[in-house]
Design a protein that fits this description.
heterodimer, A: alpha+beta, Sulfite Reductase Hemoprotein, domain 2, Sulfite Reductase Hemoprotein, domain 1, B: alpha/beta
Chain lengths: 556, 162
């Protein structure tokens, strides 16, 4: 993985000292909370319902075991001994003390980490495919370009006060694991007719109260122009994005209001002015960063299907886990292992400090000392020898990290909701807990098959409900928590926004409603069909009929 | 309003002329864009220099053809989080080659001095009580920069591959 050089390290160290000075000015009362707010928001520090919340950036989800141990230490020393992995591959701490955050950040800097631009109207933590470098279905390793963007976007003098926050995802695969089409800018590695690698650039995707799917603004962008093209998009957005209404300030609204063709013309005109300037990306810099992501020295492993088969035969649980949570690696003899952070009935994405330490040890033992966080709020060991899978599974199982539910109904994406968040209208964690308990039978989950359930506690959609096959949105109805259900959303390469199925359900009824939806699908599905395929084939009516019988009767 | 010019607190030689106030016979004045457009000839006939104030919804192109006549372009930050002036400043310097003063006015915070300087601002109307040391500290907070900007500082990529 990427390692800081002297420049990267100095930027982060100096940022810590700058923030320390800002916090001290606040503690001395030299600046008011109102004046301090923009400063802390430039550094991932939110004021939530009960306490400050610090969001630590994990660029494109890459972590070393050393970094994870540091996160464990930090969550013990400065917080309450746990952290929460987010849908943008970051880690949130829910209880830091303001006066201690500079020391916390200084400790992070020791392991080449920071919280720069994890909040505020700036370019946020750049995300990428968690299988980068190890999956056979990619053109190139997306992390190379995510790192280049991380550096360029860090403390950008012109684009640190954009109309609104700005999220970039990079993927190089035909199978999208990053929700690339729901990002302000989506970057997809692509080849042109001459076989050269470059980028397809999408713009204007997003969730929130106006969900939009990103549109292509450039079919093919040569590599050396990546940063100048970014800068052109940002410049047009910075000048023209709406600043009169926070809900209309994201670039998706500019795309919607101007139309993609008009925006493209403005961006291309701007780009033509700057593309031959100092933003050109030297091949030597791409090569320098590429070097950090070159494949490790994999061992040549004699295939030993038999031992694995014996383990699977002797342990059906291991066999089941292998089928669900283990994914093919491009290197023969190796496997990609997903660690589920969704054990039944537990808050999605939460990990204790002790688990973090144990995961770091396992990463050292089984996966070359590295791991990745995922957009789905899980973790990945990317380089596990097939021969180690059984041992690893036993260790993970002992840590409650081996729930075989990847992409199944138990693999819920869920925001912190009203238990923590100052914006939320309703609690989301308890709903996800009750749903996963209802579907606790893992065999049943497997039989139901791929079904992405996503829960947000308010319209800001941090739980990605719009992109859920089943989406649940918490709303406040006269002081009571209600839950609106959408169906048919998808956050992958066939991105779609879910359709509202009907009136919202009470907290008491929402779990039954999810079960009714699942039962309807089971009844209607054709062999081999996943939920989304059935939904797309039969539409919403059968689900509506089941969910709102009285209404349907009355209408008939 | 104290003026920080190239890091030094100085007496502001310029007067901001509100739109409703008559143009004085002498003295450097900064006027709004509308007035500049309407009374350009009157303003240029005076022997003292003239500057233009741009609001954040104006763009650099609004004065691009006039830059030879202008001593100052003042760019407004109605609120610190309105970042349009950063782009306007860079375009004035890098695209239109403006060599005069680019001044930040409005909600100018010391924690943003560095970004402003990098984008081509060389003068800031600051809060009462701000010091040259504050400027010094803010603009020296970082030694290295990833992005090319109006200050022409060698980027990290350039340093790596020189």
């Amino acid at each position: 993985m990427y390692r800081y050089d002297q420049f990267d390290q100095r930027v982060v160290d100096e940022r810590v000292e700058q923030f320390r000075d800002q916090v001290e000015r606040r503690m001395r009362g030299e600046i008011t909370e109102a004046e301090f707010k923009p400063l802390r928001l430039m550094n991932g520090l939110y004021l939530q319902l009960h306490a400050y919340m610090l969001r630590i950036g994990i660029p494109y989800g890459m972590l070393s075991s050393k970094q994870l141990r540091k996160l464990a230490h930090i969550s013990r020393k400065y917080d309450r001994g746990y952290g929460h992995f987010t849908t943008r591959q970051c880690l949130q701490l829910n209880w830091p003390k303001l006066e201690e955050t500079p020391d916390l950040l200084a400790e992070l800097a020791e392991v080449e980490m920071h919280a720069i631009q994890t909040s505020g109207n700036s370019i946020r933590n750049v995300t990428a495919d968690q299988y980068g470098g190890v999956t056979a279905d990619e053109i190139e390793d997306s992390r190379i370009y995510a790192e280049i963007i991380r550096q360029w976007s860090t403390l950008h003098p012109e684009f640190s006060f954009l109309p609104r926050k700005f999220k970039i995802a990079v993927t190089a695969s035909t199978i999208d694991r990053t929700a690339v089409k729901f990002h302000d800018i989506g970057i997809i590695l692509a080849k042109n007719e001459d076989g050269e690698t470059g980028f397809e650039i999408l713009v204007g995707g997003g969730m929130g109260r106006t969900p939009m799917i990103g549109q292509t603004i450039r079919k093919f962008l040569p590599k050396q122009h990546l940063l100048s093209y970014m800068e052109a998009i940002f410049r047009i957005y910075n000048l023209m994005g709406r600043r009169d209404n926070i809900y209309k300030a994201r670039i998706k609204i500019l795309v919607y209001e101007l139309g993609i063709d008009e925006l493209q013309k403005l961006v291309e005109d701007e780009w033509n002015e700057i593309k031959d300037g100092p933003l050109g990306l030297p091949a030597a810099e791409i090569a320098r960063i590429e070097e950090y992501f070159k494949p490790p020295a994999y061992e040549v492993i004699e295939p030993d299907a038999q031992t694995l088969a014996v383990h699977k035969f002797e342990s059906p649980d291991f066999a089941h886990w292998s089928k669900v949570n283990v994914v093919a690696h491009k290197q023969p003899g190796y496997a990609i292992v997903n660690l589920s952070l969704k054990p039944t009935g537990r808050p999605t994405g939460d990990v204790t400090a002790d688990q973090m330490d144990a995961i770091a040890d396992l990463a050292d033992q089984y996966s070359l000392g590295e791991l990745r966080t995922t957009h789905d709020q899980n973790l990945v060991f990317a380089d596990v020898k097939e021969g180690d899978l059984f041992e690893l599974w036993r260790d993970l199982d002992g840590l409650d990290l081996a729930t075989p539910n990847l992409k199944l109904i138990g693999d819920v994406i869920c925001c912190p909701g009203l238990d923590y968040c100052a914006l939320a209208n309703a609690r989301s964690i308890p709903v996800s807990q009750r749903i996963t308990r209802r579907f606790a039978d893992l065999k049943r989950q497997f039989d139901i098959g791929e079904l992405r359930l996503k829960i947000s506690g308010c319209i800001n959609a941090c739980g990605h409900h719009h992109a859920g096959n089943i989406g649940i949105l918490g709303v406040d109805r006269k002081g009571e928590e209600y839950y609106q259900i959408t169906l048919g959303g998808s956050g992958d390469e066939n991105a779609a926004i879910g359709d509202v199925v009907g009136p919202a359900f009470s907290s008491e009824d929402v779990v039954d409603a999810v079960e009714a939806i699942v039962e309807t699908y089971i009844e209607k599905r054709k062999p081999g069909e996943i939920f989304l395929e059935t939904y797309r084939r039969i539409g919403q009516e059968p689900f509506k009929t089941r969910l709102y019988p009285e209404k349907t009767d009355a209408a008939a | 309003m104290p003026l920080l010019k190239d890091g030094k607190l100085i007496d502001d030689p310029w007067t901001h002329l509100p739109d409703e106030v008559a143009i004085p016979a002498s003295g450097p004045v900064i006027v709004g864009l509308k007035r500049w457009r309407e009374e350009r000839d009157v303003l240029l006939k005076r022997k003292d220099p003239v500057g233009v104030r741009l609001q954040s919804d104006h763009v650099a192109g609004d004065v691009a053809d006039d830059l030879d006549s202008l001593g100052v372009v003042a760019l407004a930050f109605p609120v610190y989080r309105d970042g349009r002036a950063y782009t306007n400043a860079r375009r004035l310097r890098e695209r239109h080659g403006f060599k005069g003063e680019i001044r930040a006015i409005g909600n100018v915070l010391r924690d943003q001095y560095l970004f402003m300087q990098r984008c081509g601002f060389d003068a800031l109307e600051v809060k009462e009580g701000e010091t040259e040391e504050d400027w010094e500290k803010a603009t020296n907070a970082f030694s290295d920069f990833y992005q090319p900007a109006s200050d022409g500082i060698e980027t990290v990529i350039q340093q790596r591959h020189r």
